[in-house]
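explain this:

___
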Amino acid sequence: MPEEYENQPIRSRPFCQKRVVIMKKDFQKNSDDDIDAFLARKKSSQSTTPKEGSNSTYGKSKQSQSDRASSKSQDDEAPREETDEEKDDQIRVARTGRAAAEAYQDVAVLRKKAHEHSHKAAQLYHKHKANQARGQKCSSRAVAHREKSDDRHAKAKEYRIKIKEYESELSGAAEDKTALSPEALQNKIAALERKSAKQEEIARKREHAAALQTEKAAKFRSRAAKFLEKSRLHESEARMFTKRADNLEKAG
């Protein structure tokens, strides 16, 4: 110890000097019991715990070390082997899932086929109605042509009646019973015969047009019946596939 601190009181000296002085005083023991007590007190002071701050950091570091050790021990553990029952359960679950997926696929395929047939049936039914409408239009046209032909026939009949009247007058003209000359009557008769023939010709033309429209109407009706039959067949197929899909869903 420096000489400058030897004459100062102990309380006014630095901490390190105080400790040295105290330790010197403690070693100034005369008996073995005093020495043993001093050594025991020194050991107990060294074994005391650190301050609170050092305690918390020490505890945290120790806990982290223990966590790392436990995680490392868990990683080092060998994987547990599965039992036969667990493997059988896994196989059973996989088979059940596969069966359910296949059943769902079958139902989806049946639904798709049912919708295809239903769509085709709707298309054919539309064609049936379209041809039926066209046939009805042709029938209406044929009726109109027949009505016009009847009108022409009626006009031709009127002309023939007038021709008979003029022929009777012509026979009377030979006996001077009419004011018209036979040549004038013959001209009138010829004109009426021409008009009657013209009306008959127009009437026959209308009848021909009516026959053509009737033939078209029959053709369209035949097509409509064919499309209706095909539509009914596709509807039957659609119902069959729908029923199969419903039964498969109920069974699943």
